[in-house]
């Protein structure tokens, strides 16, 4: 067992983990943080997406020991106080969820994606990689393509993200 410390949603949490423990399993099974979901456990669905030091991470593919000392933000930690994050509000307003299983990962991915776009990072859909990206629907779809929704709420997810991006 190795001793590590994670700051999860603003709370510093020490724990001892087996070096093979994924960040997702450490969060869910050891720290009782259930916002990130275990979907495929292979990094293909995005349900486990969290922000680590502000960057999008698939927590099922990341070892907890690699994140020792990191700031981990889950969908539960996105809002301020009792208020919802603007993206969570937009998801509700645009009916961008059905069963809700993928929603925490979608929200964390969208927050990370908006930050990446704001810093000028291009995507595969960006026509001019030297220009500041314009978040068209095509850009949003491409940037969110690692997050799957089995219910098919994609059109409303794109609308919600577009509203917050503008």
From TrEMBL:
<keyword id="KW-0479">Metal-binding</keyword>
<keyword id="KW-0408">Iron</keyword>
<keyword id="KW-0560">Oxidoreductase</keyword>
<dbReference type="Pfam" id="PF01799">
    <property type="entry name" value="Fer2_2"/>
</dbReference>
<dbReference type="InterPro" id="IPR036884">
    <property type="entry name" value="2Fe-2S-bd_dom_sf"/>
</dbReference>
<feature type="domain" description="2Fe-2S ferredoxin-type">
    <location>
        <begin position="2"/>
        <end position="78"/>
    </location>
</feature>
<dbReference type="InterPro" id="IPR052914">
    <property type="entry name" value="Aldehyde_Oxdr_Iron-Sulfur"/>
</dbReference>
<dbReference type="Pfam" id="PF00111">
    <property type="entry name" value="Fer2"/>
</dbReference>
<protein>
    <submittedName>
        <fullName>2Fe-2S iron-sulfur cluster-binding protein</fullName>
    </submittedName>
</protein>
<dbReference type="InterPro" id="IPR002888">
    <property type="entry name" value="2Fe-2S-bd"/>
</dbReference>
<dbReference type="InterPro" id="IPR006058">
    <property type="entry name" value="2Fe2S_fd_BS"/>
</dbReference>
<dbReference type="InterPro" id="IPR036010">
    <property type="entry name" value="2Fe-2S_ferredoxin-like_sf"/>
</dbReference>
<dbReference type="InterPro" id="IPR001041">
    <property type="entry name" value="2Fe-2S_ferredoxin-type"/>
</dbReference>
<dbReference type="InterPro" id="IPR012675">
    <property type="entry name" value="Beta-grasp_dom_sf"/>
</dbReference>
């Amino acid at each position: 067992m190795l001793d590590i410390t994670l700051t999860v949603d603003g709370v510093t949490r020490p724990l001892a983990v087996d070096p093979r423990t994924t960040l997702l399993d450490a969060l869910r099974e050891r720290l009782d943080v259930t916002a990130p979901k275990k979907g495929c456990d292979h990094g293909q669905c995005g349900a486990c997406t969290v922000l680590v030091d502000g960057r999008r991470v698939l927590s099922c593919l990341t070892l907890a020991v690699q994140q020792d000392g990191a700031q981990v933000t889950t969908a539960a930690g996105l809002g301020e106080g009792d208020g919802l994050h603007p993206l969570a509000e937009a998801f509700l307003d645009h009916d961008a969820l059905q069963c809700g299983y993928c929603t925490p990962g979608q929200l964390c991915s969208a927050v990370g994606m908006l930050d990446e776009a704001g810093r000028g990072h291009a995507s595969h859909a960006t026509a001019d990689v030297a220009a500041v990206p314009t978040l068209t629907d095509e850009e949003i779809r491409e940037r969110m393509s690692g997050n799957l929704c089995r219910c098919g709420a994609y059109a409303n997810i794109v609308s919600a993200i577009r509203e917050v991006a503008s």
